[in-house]
Amino acid sequence: MIKLKNVMKTYATPGGSLNALDNVTFEVKEGEFIAVVGASGAGKSTLLFTIAGLVTPTAGRVSVAGESIYEKSASFRARLRRERLGFVFQTFHLLPYLS
């Protein structure tokens, strides 16, 4: 199960703070499939990367399989991505910061 509770991600910009995620709370049960849709800049990638342990939230809790992933090590999160999470992207992308 994936569970988010009051998750926020705020980025500093020259014009001030930008809330990419603003108090996001939801859960996805094991075996359930979801689609994340929205306008460009709505925070879809930030949401997915936060669930995957790639972007640390400013506030809130992200749990996968009952484990609060940001209370764990980076190697734990890498193993989690390898063993339990999968993404299907709309277009082919390489992630240079993971290579």
Automatic annotation (TrEMBL):
Database matches in InterPro entries: ABC_transporter-like_ATP-bd, ABC_transpr_LolD-like, P-loop_NTPase
GO CC aspect terms: plasma membrane
Ranges of residues in domain ABC transporter: 21-97
Any single Pfam family the record assigns to this protein: ABC_tran
A GO molecular-function descriptor: transmembrane transporter activity
PANTHER family according to UniProt: IMPORT ATP-BINDING PROTEIN (PTHR24220)
Protein's UniProt name: ABC transporter domain-containing protein
Species the sequence originates in: marine sediment metagenome
